[in-house]
Amino acid sequence: MARTVREELKARKQAYVQEEILNSAERLFAERGIRAVSIDDIANNLGYTKSVVYYYFKNKNQLLWEIFQRIHVAWDGEMEELYNRTDLAPADKLAAMARLYGINVLQNRAWTTIYFRDEGELTKEQQKLLYEWKQHFDSILKNVYLEGVEKGVFKSMPPYVVVGGIIGACNFLRVWFRDTGKMTIEEVSEANVALLLGGLLIGRSRKTPKAGA
Amino acid sequence: MARTVREELKARKQAYVQEEILNSAERLFAERGIRAVSIDDIANNLGYTKSVVYYYFKNKNQLLWEIFQRIHVAWDGEMEELYNRTDLAPADKLAAMARLYGINVLQNRAWTTIYFRDEGELTKEQQKLLYEWKQHFDSILKNVYLEGVEKGVFKSMPPYVVVGGIIGACNFLRVWFRDTGKMTIEEVSEANVALLLGGLLIGRSRKTPKAGA
DNA sequence: ATGTTATTGTACTGATCGGTCAATTTTGTC
DNA sequence: GACAAAATTGACCGATCAGTACAATAACAT
User: Fold this and answer.
1) What DSSP designation does A208 have?
2) Is B102 within 8 Å of B189 (Cβ atoms)?
3) Would you tell me how many other CB atoms lie within 10 Å of the CB of residue A11?
4) CB-based contact A161:B169 (threshold 8 Å)
């Protein structure tokens, strides 16, 4: 019993340090690119030495892969949840998805940078897996769009132009958005949704579709 | 006279080799990222040794910067040309710009990759210059958009959402576009324009604006 | 205290790579 | 062929860095 409590405590401490290291790596990777960041940099950033990093992680690649996994789990999970909701019509669902993704991008700019810039630093196997994740993510958006087309609410366009356009526009938000600007993350994302969905919707209704949280 | 001819010839030969090296660098940089490419790689790729590269270029940074300049000159020049045309209404002009840019992205995927991924490898001064170039590029699109708003043909939105959306969507085309697909570059770009402009235009007209070449 | 395990520091290795340099080969000129 | 300029080679230097080995210390149980 006492044994378990102690182990539990240790595990929590370990998890905490791992988290700390991962966060440090994340920040530096995003800022300078993986290859420009040494393990020493990551460690020094926390007042540690290199050995500590190697005590908690096997190698540099594991650090990177861990980050990719984090991102995937967080983003895909939320998106999937939205996808499975039955109370939303296609237009509202797609809008909610674009809104969510835009906000995610803006709230996790470091993640987005790494996710789309440093893919090439992964191993072939990891890249293959990542490719499948991205495919899956795309297909969620695609399905909602196609459902909308079928129901006659969306114009019919090449699906990848639509999906790519949404993802591309959202990803790019982080490039020009500044926290010091007049607009909040939510407002920016909302305007972005209006731009993207406005081009899709059929009919003269001028209002932007809204989805409940 | 003979002197001049000879010099001319020599200059042309030099320019040719420089071009070759730059192309090699471009391809490899885009594929693997600058830091993952050694000068040896670039040289070997052409059957040369490292020294040849250093005979024609000062250092690795110059190679990279030369590439950035190339891209800027090519893209900005074309866009400026379009901007200065007086025979196009805002909607047609903005559509033509998005169309042009999308095609540029797809025809020069290596360029686009480097331009938006490896910025951080430039010196601070170069980054500053690049930032100004990008600002200028954005402002061209922005002005056309704002003109359209003023004339009542575009919905009023935050300009950076519109400009960023266009650039972001175009940039992302290269990520999913495959030459083996059923659509040509021009068709993809056209559909992309329809998506983006469709969300901007006021009124019930369903047709996509067209611009003369 | 004593032994044990978890954690961290120090010093090192081996490899890579940007950049330099002197020597050599090639090219073109007279 | 002799000479000079251009082009190319190969060997080398110094720095950086991922990863390892092992010693040193901290933490904790008994």
Assistant:
1) P
2) yes
3) 10
4) no
Q: How far is CA A14 from the centre of its chain?
A: 26
Separation between Cα atoms, residue B68 and residue B29, nearest integer Å: 12
Q: Identify which of B160, B162, B195 has the shortest CB distance to residue A157.
A: B195
HEC readout, A118-163: CHHHCCHHHHHHHHHHHHHHHHHHHHHHHHHHHCCCECCCCHHHHH
pLDDT tens-digit profile of A3-56? Answer: 566 677 788 888 999 999 999 999 999 999 999 999 999 999 999 999 999 999
Q: How many Cα atoms within 13 Å fall on the side-chain side of residue B88? A: 20
List strand D contacts in B 14-43 (CB < 7 A).
Answer: 14, 17
In the numeric block, the tokens 């995927």 are attached to B109
CA distance A169 to A191: 11
Instruction: Report pLDDT digits (tens) over B64-114.
Output: 999 999 999 999 999 999 999 999 999 999 999 999 999 999 999 999 999
Q: What is the distance in angstroms between the CA of the first residue and the CA of the last residue of chain A?
A: 43
Give me the residue label for tokens 């040509």.
B184
Q: Which nucleotide is nearest to B47 (CA to C1')?
A: D8
